Amino acid sequence: MNLLKPQAAARAKSVFETEAKAILDTGKHMDWTAFAKAARLLATAERIAVSGCGHSGIACAHFAHSLCCVERPARFLPPSEAVHGGTGFLQAGDVLVAASRGGKTAELLPIMEIARRKGARVITITENSASPMARLSEVVLPLVVHREADRYNMQGTSSFSALSAVFDALQTAVMEETGYQREQFAVTHPGGAVGEKFKGENNG
Questions:
Q1: Where in the sequence is the domain holding 71, given as residue range(s)?
Q2: N or C: where does the chain have the smaller number of CB atoms within 10 Å of the terminal CB?
Q3: What's the order of all strands across the beta sheet hosting 74-76?
């Protein structure tokens, strides 16, 4: 078996500590008042759109799916589709969640402006509280990422993990706010190993 170069092995091992630090730092610096407002908005919105680009967009798509799993009506809104009519999904009182580490993602700014014009509530997750995206938002939640995990500090690694943790925390809070029950999950998730587990419990 070929072994990795020493620097490759060392870099790979450091990833766990680097990404864990981003998650912990984000948790330590969380604005819990803003977080509570965001969770309440998500728990009561009739519709939720989540949008982001690149690695943030992938995390956003996962968050939208996670919300659907706990019966919150959410969809991922790809930026390219949003400005070609996709924002028609949003109505007054709905919620748009936008995510960008730097808070300057050009593709997201017109979506946020449209959402505000239509009367939707806007939540942004970013490390730049003075960014254009933050200024367009009703609620801003922080990311704290000192560096990405790769040697050039450029791939969305630590920032992806920190953003995913914020999304997981929001989903967990929403479940508590809405009184979501395990039995509801059994109805909407009959597939895969999770579905099989519920079937086994019901037949036992």
A1: 32-179
A2: N
A3: 74-76, 48-52, 95-99, 121-126, 139-142
The average pLDDT across 19-23 equals 98
8 CB burial (10 A radius; 0-12, 13-18, 19+)? exposed
Three-state SS annotation for 16-57? HHHHHHHHHHHHHCCCHHHHHHHHHHHHHCCCEEEEECHHHH
Residue 145 lies in a domain: yes
Judge contact between 3 and 9, C-beta under 8 A.
yes
| DSSP reduced 3-state for 149 | coil
Mean pLDDT of the chain: 93
pTM: 0.91
* The pLDDT of residue 1 is above 70: no
